[in-house]
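Q: What residues go here?
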């Protein structure tokens, strides 16, 4: 989903505040013991180790469907849907007409007496539930009449019949006379049309440009709801914030449009000779072998009828996409079109393409869109999972940014870092949730959070950090240190948690809680708790095991626990299920036996409910420094941690979390400076 506008205001980097200037206190062993007891007595702490580290975090044991190690179990099943669609885009009346055949395979062990479908266009109706769920309710926005069903038929056991169905908001239920047995097939034939929403569609719309309208067509066909072992039928209505949860299968679709339009869609174009000129086919072949962006249709050709294979009537563009949850497409006669090869691990290739109007041309704008797309796909493929589809399209429009498998709709006026980051983000969704097929309608963090996390590192990697570090509406919007910027949300008693239902998160908290907090949580796991090697191994294993499947949140938590070999329940509980605050405080620093050469005994108190492993740094007067990494086990029994740091000479300063990497609510109590 889209990002907020980049906030270019940069905060001052927070430095640790030095509250105390102490003369080093040198004490005898007996006096030290006494002093520790005094410290413990004087500390006011909200921290309860037994609560944070309580066992039995997972309410259920692993099953044969969702294993205890977080992987799909030996009896994991998933239903399959293949779609055949023939659509026509009537650009005069702004109506999309379509003939759909759904081939549904019930791989579940259950006989299904009824089927549920998502009919998302109904979200634009005047009486749709989506008009009432936010604080914008009551604002007069334009509407459509939603889906108009001309016929709905079922084909079962070689017989065909009119379907008995109801439509309730954005769901359609088909009631079967004879249940669909376990492992059975059924076909649905649906003829329908709908009025394409204008700009108010937000994710699917049309808008004007100098050389013609741009259509962004998505959520355009009735799609099967997921039936799974966690919820049964997942029938949450489409309100707008919670996105999609869809089954995998193959989608064969064709789009008939006026002769002068270019259609750019998910998946492979299978009839190029019918819809492209010989020159365009040859340029596409060059692009497949080029790391540099190649023009397929340039700015001068946009208004030249010779750039189309015929001069009247319509053309039908035919696409196929395999193993996908969805397809979307853009259509316009205003499109400039360019492309470049994507190099994937193992010598595989894909093709990155951009379509945009002349208004978006420019070296600081869409002329680099294909480069951004290509490099993002190459990075995510190398790092996490190989991009599985032959084509990826970056389409300029007003929906920007919105993601679908193999195609993203990005902002027509975006430039520079905004265009890079929206491109990386929206194509990043092809990993979460297009490859790892989580339920984004319920669990936004597995969609926006995971994607924002991989974007942080993609941004560092792109063109030697040209747009790094990632700081935008999704991640540390003030432009400063994420560990500081997250703190107001930890302190805010009204803030929802990461696990709050996607549609129950208000706009104020949508980016902070669905993108920023989970992404920074994974950064904490990778950088502070597990380290790169263990995090990457466990996360990659999670991605590979759940690619093209349906993981639940617990599958992710269990995958990380098992793959990294760590009971992280304290972290899931503190960071994901709650907004527990962290406040570490340096409360003592004393030389052993008054002698700097024997080392320094350091005491850190945990003053609030969260725990974290932490680093303490001692700077010595001779200019050297010592660091100690203290594991989270320091907080398993006590709210005070005492340990020794090797020192060789007198100290200048001691500080907890010297890199300001932890979301410590009060850095003012983290350090001492010695006179
Ligand atoms: Zn997103």
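A:
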């Amino acid at each position: 989903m889209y990002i907020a506008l980049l906030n270019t205001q940069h905060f001052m980097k927070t430095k640790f505040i030095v509250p105390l200037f102490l003369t080093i206190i040198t004490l005898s062993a007996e006096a030290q013991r006494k002093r520790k007891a005094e410290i413990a007595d004087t500390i006011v702490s909200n921290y309860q180790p037994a609560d944070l580290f309580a066992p039995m975090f997972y309410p259920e044991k692993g099953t044969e469907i969702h294993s205890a190690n977080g992987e799909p179990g030996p009896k994991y099943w998933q239903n399959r849907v293949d779609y055949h669609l023939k659509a026509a885009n009537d650009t005069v009346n702004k109506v999309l007409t379509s003939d759909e055949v759904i081939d549904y395979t019930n791989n579940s062990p259950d006989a299904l007496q009824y089927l549920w479908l998502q009919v998302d266009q109904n979200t634009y109706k005047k009486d749709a539930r989506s008009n009432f769920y936010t604080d914008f309710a009551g604002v007069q926005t334009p509407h459509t009449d939603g889906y108009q069903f001309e016929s709905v038929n079922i084909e079962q056991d070689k017989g065909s019949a009119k379907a008995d169905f109801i439509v309730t908001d954005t769901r359609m239920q088909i009631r079967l006379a004879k249940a669909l047995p376990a492992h059975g097939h059924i076909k649905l034939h649906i003829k329908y049309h709908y009025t394409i929403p204008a700009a108010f569609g937000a994710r699917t719309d049309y808008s004007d440009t100098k050389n013609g309208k741009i259509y962004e067509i998505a959520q355009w066909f009735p799609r099967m709801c997921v039936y799974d072992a966690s919820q049964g039928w997942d029938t949450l209505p489409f309100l707008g914030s919670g996105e999609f949860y869809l089954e995998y299968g193959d989608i064969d679709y064709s789009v008939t449009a006026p002769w002068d339009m270019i259609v750019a869609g998910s998946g492979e174009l299978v009839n190029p000779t019918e819809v492209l000129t010989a020159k365009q086919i040859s340029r596409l072949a060059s692009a497949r072998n080029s790391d540099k962006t190649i023009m397929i249709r340039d700015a001068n050709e946009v208004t030249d009828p010779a750039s189309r294979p015929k001069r009247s009537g319509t053309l039908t563009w035919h696409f196929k996409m395999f193993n996908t949850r969805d397809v979307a497409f853009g259509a316009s006669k205003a499109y400039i079109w360019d492309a470049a090869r994507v190099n994937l691990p193992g010598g595989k290739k894909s093709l990155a393409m951009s379509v945009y109007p002349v208004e978006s041309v420019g070296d600081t704008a869409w002329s680099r869109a294909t480069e951004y797309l290509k490099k993002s796909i190459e990075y995510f493929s190398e790092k996490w999972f190989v991009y599985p589809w032959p084509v990826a399209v970056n389409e300029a429009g007003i929906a920007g940014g919105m993601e679908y498998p193999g195609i993203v709709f990005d902002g027509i006026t975006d430039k520079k870092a905004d265009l890079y980051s929206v491109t990386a983000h929206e194509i990043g969704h092809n990993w979460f949730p297009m490859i790892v097929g989580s339920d984004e309608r319920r669990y936004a963090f597995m969609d926006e959070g995971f994607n924002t996390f991989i974007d942080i590192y993609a941004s560092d990697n792109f063109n030697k950090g040209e747009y790094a570090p990632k700081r935008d509406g999704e991640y540390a919007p003030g432009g400063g240190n994420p560990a500081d910027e997250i703190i107001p949300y930890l302190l805010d008693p009204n803030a929802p948690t990461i696990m709050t239902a996607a549609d129950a998160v208000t706009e104020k908290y949508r980016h902070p809680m669905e993108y920023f907090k989970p992404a920074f949580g994974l950064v904490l796991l990778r950088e502070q708790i597990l380290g790169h090697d263990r995090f990457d191994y466990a996360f990659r294993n999670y991605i590979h095991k759940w690619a093209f499947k349906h993981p639940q949140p617990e599958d992710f938590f269990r995958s990380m626990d098992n793959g990294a070999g760590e009971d992280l329940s304290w972290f899931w509980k503190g960071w994901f299920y709650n907004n527990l605050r962290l406040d570490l405080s340096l409360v003592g620093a004393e030389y052993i036996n008054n002698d700097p050469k024997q080392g320094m005994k350091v005491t850190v108190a945990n003053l609030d409910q969260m725990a974290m492993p932490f680093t303490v740094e001692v700077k010595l007067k001779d200019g050297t420094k010592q660091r100690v990494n203290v594991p989270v086990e320091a907080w398993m029994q006590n709210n005070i941690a005492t340990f020794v740091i090797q020192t060789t000479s007198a100290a200048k300063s001691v500080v907890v979390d010297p890199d300001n990497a932890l979301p410590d609510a009060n850095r003012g109590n983290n350090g001492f400076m010695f006179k």
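A: Context that may help when evaluating the design: The two ends are 53 Å apart (CA to CA). Residues 507-529 form the longest helix (23 residues).
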